[in-house]
Amino acid sequence: MGAPTESKKALTLAEISALVRGRVVGDEALTVVDVRPVDEASSEELGFLASRRYVRYVDDSRARALLVAADLEGQVGEGRSLVVVEDAHRALYELLRTLHPDAPAPADIHPTAVLGRGVELGEDVGIGPYAVLEDGVRVGSGTRIGAHVVIGRDAVVGQDCLLHPQVVLYPRTVVGHRAILHSGARIGVDGFGWAFVDGAPRKMPHVGRAILEDDVEVGANSTVDRGSIGDTVVGRSAKLDNLVHLAHNVRLGAMSLLAALVGIAGSTRVGRGVLMGGQAGVINHLEIGDGAQIAAAGKVMRDVPAGAVVSGYPARPNREYLRKEAHLERLPKLAERVKALESLVGNRGAAAPEE
Amino acid sequence: MGAPTESKKALTLAEISALVRGRVVGDEALTVVDVRPVDEASSEELGFLASRRYVRYVDDSRARALLVAADLEGQVGEGRSLVVVEDAHRALYELLRTLHPDAPAPADIHPTAVLGRGVELGEDVGIGPYAVLEDGVRVGSGTRIGAHVVIGRDAVVGQDCLLHPQVVLYPRTVVGHRAILHSGARIGVDGFGWAFVDGAPRKMPHVGRAILEDDVEVGANSTVDRGSIGDTVVGRSAKLDNLVHLAHNVRLGAMSLLAALVGIAGSTRVGRGVLMGGQAGVINHLEIGDGAQIAAAGKVMRDVPAGAVVSGYPARPNREYLRKEAHLERLPKLAERVKALESLVGNRGAAAPEE
Amino acid sequence: MGAPTESKKALTLAEISALVRGRVVGDEALTVVDVRPVDEASSEELGFLASRRYVRYVDDSRARALLVAADLEGQVGEGRSLVVVEDAHRALYELLRTLHPDAPAPADIHPTAVLGRGVELGEDVGIGPYAVLEDGVRVGSGTRIGAHVVIGRDAVVGQDCLLHPQVVLYPRTVVGHRAILHSGARIGVDGFGWAFVDGAPRKMPHVGRAILEDDVEVGANSTVDRGSIGDTVVGRSAKLDNLVHLAHNVRLGAMSLLAALVGIAGSTRVGRGVLMGGQAGVINHLEIGDGAQIAAAGKVMRDVPAGAVVSGYPARPNREYLRKEAHLERLPKLAERVKALESLVGNRGAAAPEE
Predict the structure, then answer these.
(1) Is residue C349 part of a domain?
(2) Nearest residue in chain C measured CA to CA from A314
């Protein structure tokens, strides 16, 4: 399944520093065999320190060397060697790719795979046990399809994709190049649409498609509906975490990142580079502008302009939300102040006739 | 998998109008080959316009004809032919059924399907590759079972159902006629119940069943627990979107519609025709009356009477919710007003001894 | 799949009372064949009554005998025999285990199961149709693996586990003894982590593991991510309901119970015996102390001390939450009181120059 390998290399801090464009403080010749969080690293491993919250674990760490964000360098005591970097996550990314190169799954087609009529496979396609490709499916070269994947009739999958076990693509779904779909992702599901005939809900036919553009990643057990009429589109390099739901006819812009349990209702259009925290939700037929940010659990009930940062339920601009929360915090005190005023004014009110 | 076909027919506006009981304004002889959202339709397609929010796309639409809701007719400029209808979604439903008739999956039993002892199948049952029907399972005539579906021991599935790939029915689950279960739906799962023995949680045996009545649809990756003792029941024509959770012993009334990511906790009873927006939640042991509506993300913490419309967290009647939100909006101003009063009264208070 | 059997035994109330350490009021020789909720029980079944909300169903119940919590004994009228117990759920647990003993799945290895190189199986391991165990997988004795389960390379599963159909363990996942994993559970998924290179999100390699300690249960369609570096750990006897999400590097303490649709973001540490209601959420990098309780839909945005009970969005201590809600309830009245004060003081304010 293209899983990460276990690290076998030993690297010196000098080598690591060159790799991640960092700066060594201490012993350049010291070697480590892997990188781990500062509180879990052994003496053979590079401790990773990117967040202020983990500084407290440094003193007890067994790591003899740390990969540390520049703004935390001053908070690490003496006695350890450091590789100091500006962007710790970028550095981690480079380092892990070197220490744990991908072990690509073999490009075998398992004899139990069921291929329908007219299936077209590019070169070097791997298909796992019991996968089912229905009639007319096309798969680009270099793509790996895991065990028990089902690709419905006339669906198209691009090149160099990785479909983990038990992904289901409904018929006519389109997946671009280099997509990663995790186990249990369901793409192209009928949307939730009903016409009421004699008071009972009748299923609206769903004849549109779900289209994932290039470089999309979809988390485990996430669901993307097909369009009712027209298509649902997930833009290039957009990333969905686990258990995310995109309803029919949603359009999600390029490079947007949706954390787990996010739900976006029908026909909503989300711009480019939008970030949504876990459990955020957006109702239907809205427009979320480019670069907007929805905080975790933010419930969006109206359009969000480009670049806005919103939080809360209903979601509102973050400053407004924080001010509202502060006022809420002071509400008991406000009530007391009103009571005090009343007793002052009320006394006077009662006294008034005597004036 | 019973997927929609691609449209092949060409229909005149006169034919469409007769089909959807509409009224043509313009060229009755004009033909279209499909229907699409107004902003996506080509010149060969009928543009669909049911929402005020899409009026802005009309001017740039390539569609030469529109299917339009009567209340929007006045907002469409000259130069296009129209089919005007009272209920646009009902009309769309009729039109799509004609343009895209269902292509039923074949009634074959794939040779790789595993059928246990005593399995009983009605006529014209189709079973996909690698499906597993355990001992004692009964399936009604006309039902289609997708690839990798697992039906547990002694479960019963009615007639003319459609089980998409990778549905799992736990043992003794009961599914009525004409059900549609989407990929990854798990029906009859053990509920979340624990007895504490010596301080540790011990699994409460779950011996009840999950029962889906006729015409139920369950979305992708949704979960319906079996009862602990007694049954979990989903009423006739109830519809669950994707990633919905119904806990043990929930009773969901007929024709209720639950949008994605809704969760209903144990033993709660939901009436008929109840609507819940996405991410709504209901705690356990409540009663939700017939025809109630829970807004998206509404968190219901107490019983809801029949016909009530509730929103917010905790959910309260919608008017109360809106009033509360309006008051919250004005809270900063209220605080200022109290401060102003204090300075007025305080001055006087300070002045009082001098009076 | 190790499903509960149907009850065949008939027990007298005396026998039941001995079993559950209860006290019979009425006919000790009366026999019942099963236990059901008070409103669903037949005359042959013991009605179960543990909650005040169900007292209203007693009069119409067909049950001739009830299993009743001691604090409800006084609310049950004459004419029925009772088994009275202190802890009704504990009693139900004991009774169900006797009436419905587990029927273990057979320890067969289905001929269609695909076992990779170097797979090691303990004694009495059962493997269902079409299950796939990749190279190097180890499974402890007595474990049952359902149909279509996929266990990735080098993963380890302990003894006496039950993996329901269509569970997926990603490579190198570790599962302890006596785990129960429900259908669609995905363990060891890559986490949601990105490094930005030239403005585009690049997948952070995930080289840690997901580790489930002994006696863990994971609900249907729940997802547990592997660590990015370091491991994600679910503590002993922790229980996850359906559709729960644990992000990379979460550490969940022993005996913690998470209800459906809970999401916990990356690197958050949750203590022992923590309870979270349905749809609760916790942002990343937090610490939740031992024994804390998060109410249903509570959205936790900061650390929670041990033993605290929090609710709301953002979650705050329960008392504070209730006080805040009460103040919100009175906010319209508060606004009126301020208005009244203003008119009083304002009049005086207007009068002031005349003084």
Answers:
(1) no
(2) C313
